[in-house]
Amino acid sequence: MSVSVPRERCYYYECSHGNVRLTYFIPPGILENLVKKGKLSEHAITDFPDGVDLDCTEPDFNEFRKTYGFSPEYKADELQDAFYAIFSSTKGWNTYRGTGLIHADELEAKIPEIKEKVKDPADKTDPKIEQPTTFEERYRRRLEGVSILAQNKKELREMILRGIDQRKPIHEQNFRSIKMSKGRKPQEVFSLLQNKK
What we know:
By secondary structure, this protein is α+β, with helices and mostly antiparallel strands. The chain is 43% helix and 13% strand. A hairpin with a 2-residue loop joins strand 1 and strand 2 (19-26). Helix 4 (76-87) crosses helix 7 (135-158).
């Protein structure tokens, strides 16, 4: 029984009471194009014949870059912030439990708007930034970073984004449709498999 999968880049989200897990999906056709353009190792096609599911975390993005020579256009934290701003703009977001897909272009289009309003915590690895030498200075910087991250979360929650209907939950938003391959909907297949047990 074949399962319908996205034929376009998209993000899969899992939401539970305000917490979010975001995964970037790159379909096989796009992987092949990246290989042809020399932006991705051809081993990726062998290792991921059905496409890549890449958790939106810096460690996962870095590991994929080291292994296959490709890094997504946006940083993981930018993608997480963009989705959080979208999600927290929807009705009942902090009690919502569910999963879904959002087109990559839809999510990524929000990043410039969000970057204008959110502070970037100081990058500790930037050689241009003088590194603290005392424990007290390192501790103070860490607290500043935590404070900026908390302020950013608050800013993201308070944003009113264009194209998001605050009267509807995330699964009812009018997002751009994603082209899917032929086959049964994944929910349908998983339900059938569960009933066989």
